[in-house]
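Retro notes
What went well: the complex prediction finally ran end to end.
Inputs used:
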Amino acid sequence: MTTYIPIADRDEELHDHPHSFITKWVFSQDHKVIAIQYGCTSIFVGLIALVLSGLMRLQLGYPDSFAFIDPADYYQFVTMHGMIMVVYLLTALFLGGFGNYLIPLQLGARDMVFPFLNMLSYWFFFISVLILLASFLVSGGPTGAGWTLYPPQAILRGTPGHDMGITLMLASLAVFIVAFTMGGLNYVTTVLQARTHGMTLMRMPLSIWGIFVATILGLFAFPALFVSAVMMVFDKIVGTSFFMPAILSLGEAVDHKGGSPILFQHLFWFFGHPEVYIVALPAFGLVSDVISTHARKNIFGYRMMVWAIVAIGALSFIVWAHHMYVSGMNPYFGFFFAFTTLVIAVPTAIKVYNWVLTLWQGNIRLTVPMLFAMGFIFTFVHGGLTGIFLGNVTIDLPLSDTYFVIAHFHMVMGVSPVLVLFASLYHWFPKMSGKMFNQTMAKVHFWGTFLGTYAIYLPMHYLGFLGVPRRYYSYGTTDFIPDSAQTLNANITNAAIFVGIIQMLFIINMVWSVFKGKKADPNPWEATTLEWQTPENPPGHGNWGSKLPVVYRWAYEYSVPGVKADFVPQTIPPEEVEMEEGAGPYIYRGEEEHA
Amino acid sequence: MGLFRILTEKPWLHSPQTPEGLTFEESQISGSPQKTALLFFMGVVFAVFGLFITAYFIRMELDDWRPMPESTLLWINTLVLFLASVVLQLTYNALNSDRANFVKLGLLAGALLTAAFVAGQYTVWQQMNGQGYLINSNPANAFFYVLTGIHALHLLGGLWVWTRAGIRVWTGTNPEKERLAVELCALYWHFLLLVWLVVFALLSYT
Ligand code: HEM
Ligand SMILES: [Cu+2]
């Protein structure tokens, strides 16, 4: 048998070290720099989306007090807020940011297998962001079609940004998809082929499993968005009728006829639902590692966690029409999708149980990342439960398009992934920057965000039950919305402004700590995974110095009986593990029961 | 290396060297990363066309659909693309049997045939346009132009793979990489030929 040489150590793969500022920080091919570029860009647009949500809330909480927000603006804010949050913040930060940073480091590779393609991926993403932001500057402004971009209204004259806005949005998405595909090919190939010696697939940390499966979902789901964007651009620019029916617009008949808006909805949600899991699966993975590390316990049911990730990934392709219960579909069809939707709750629930069981009797350290991770368990359970309501056709019908839906999806795919992002950013910040952040400021940030988002979204469930519709600029007078709803809305707005402002603590903390923070310990959380064992902190170019690490065990060797330290890094050979006095030699967990 | 065996490994029990556990080599996917990436990329392209074709079938059911007339030129183009694919395969075979002089010729011929195919497709567009089958006059026409256009774009994108192969062949410093590059080039062309055959069948029989 020939001995295996990891890809990173084959001669032709040895990387040049970049010297000038431009090749080191701008057109860098180093995965760590690309990760940070992805991270900063996506957080920057995320802040824009946050400001937009604040503006919307001002209008809803204090109607007509802010003259500069007219109904058209409101629709544009809704649309850009939703699209930026889902695609340009969460997708880009989880996969472009954490995917890039962690895949080579946690697997013991020197870099991605195609560093140049990786760099291109970032710059395409950057261009897509520029195109997106350009739509704020063109005449007519950005599109106000809602993030779902449903035709016919997306391109009809009554909709804000029906001209340049929607075109730029579709163009930006297409470029984003190209960027994602370049990155995604890199991530899957690196996971499959560039792991270091000893890192079998089932020894990979769950972060990598989540990112890996989410990337595969993205590779096969984004084409649906791409296809619908292409067809919509044709409808818009050359006047085809893929989606556009014959319709009167502002009193005049349009040139289109016979197209099917429902076809667009199917295509959009065939992308849109897996997109939820493109965001959620990396979050599941990252949070598992954070929880296990800070509870000093091995993750409960590792294999089940992996299977659940894979199962959720597969199932996520057959639930899309639960977003279309109100589109007049055949009841049997609706029944099928309600069924699959409830089935997907099973592996999801398994994951929740396993997180909780990992915490059970753990030696919990209430560090900042751990606080955010535990906050995630609350918000995710909460959002997941309302999802079970909405998954049932008969319950969804009256609640569809109300604030109940807004509350549900913000809990499950807004707040929850964002909490994991914060958990992960704080967790890996000492590795990325080599500095420690300010703990007190970060704790204030956590409590403000966690309690504040509850103050925003919990009351929204109630508004939804009343029947308050989503995507409305103002409600006028109705029989079903009592005046007190307005008081509630004002308080929700106050909470939203508070949460928005408190995010500045995070930004200040990060920026300040990068420059002025205390030097961080190379392994401050006493974690087992490879990225914490690099010879330099932060890791240098090529990550591992002269020799690649060798992996001897899985990533969850915490609090092993008889071992002196309460964690055993993946790289320490069994014979070098220090034992307590009187304890026998180090053995693999469970080998006893096995024998 | 069964997927089942990989996914049922108990990572907390075995060192990878123990007989019950998987060895590391068993869990490593063999083959070149370039090939893996290309296979995944072909999967993505497959999804793109699969979704277009699904949309085609759904849109076809609506009553304003008027099929396009057939064009003989499309048959000729198909033949040309088929030849391009064959030539690239022969180039790869030649590389293996050391008939080196054929390799450069083969690569160039493959590119020329592909260019001829794209030009041919463009001519079909012109013909259809001339006969009044405009892109916006019927959904069948719209699908015709979009499907042929996207397919041609993927072929042009193949220039990336082709150029890589070209560079390897012309510099000729690393025979192993040269072989791989030409192999992947041929593979991508076969794939796009297959996609074209499906699209062509769809356009002619509906
Ligand atoms: C403090 C944080 C946030 C606040 C105050 C907020 C507020 C809002 C508001 C007021 C709306 C419009 C409701 C309407 O009129 O229909 C909205 C819509 C939306 N938000 Fe957020 N949001 C926040 C964070 C997020 C995050 C993190 C995500 C990421 C998934 C997100 C995703 C969306 C989406 C997808 C929509 C729907 C847009 C549409 O209807 O087209 N939001 N949000
Ligand atoms: Cu869904």
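What we learned: Residues 10 and 21 of chain B are 8 Å apart (CA to CA).
What to try next: split runs per interface for comparison.
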